[in-house]
Design goal:
Blueprint (H helix, E strand, L loop, with lengths): L1 E3 L4 E2 H14 L7 H7 L10 H9 L40
Length: 97
């Protein structure tokens, strides 16, 4: 099945790229950009991305390596503050009564 019409990428191409990357480096994080690069292509319009991601997720070799699964345990993106102190924002001004 053709997944990306702009660059003529099929589901078999995506699966082959994932399998190749995983066999070359079992610890690799596989991203759509890496798949495009492995196929010697680049994303064009991005309209295929939902189907592209669904196709990637259906491959059993896409799993995140075990030692990387717990990197964010205990921290959520909302609470991380990107290393800044809590008081980095300007406080809201209270309207005069």
């Amino acid at each position: 099945m053709i997944v990306c019409h702009c660059t003529n990428i099929s589901d078999r191409d995506i699966f082959a790229a994932i399998d190749w990357m995983r066999s070359a480096d079992p610890q690799a994080i596989v991203t759509p950009g890496k798949i495009y690069h492995a196929l010697g292509k680049s994303a064009d319009c991005g309209g295929c991305m939902p189907l592209f991601l669904d196709t990637m997720r259906s491959n059993d070799n896409l799993e995140v390596p075990m030692q990387l699964r717990t990197l964010r345990a205990g921290r959520s993106q909302e609470n991380s503050n990107e290393g800044r102190s809590q008081g980095h924002r300007v406080p809201k001004q209270v309207p005069a009564a």
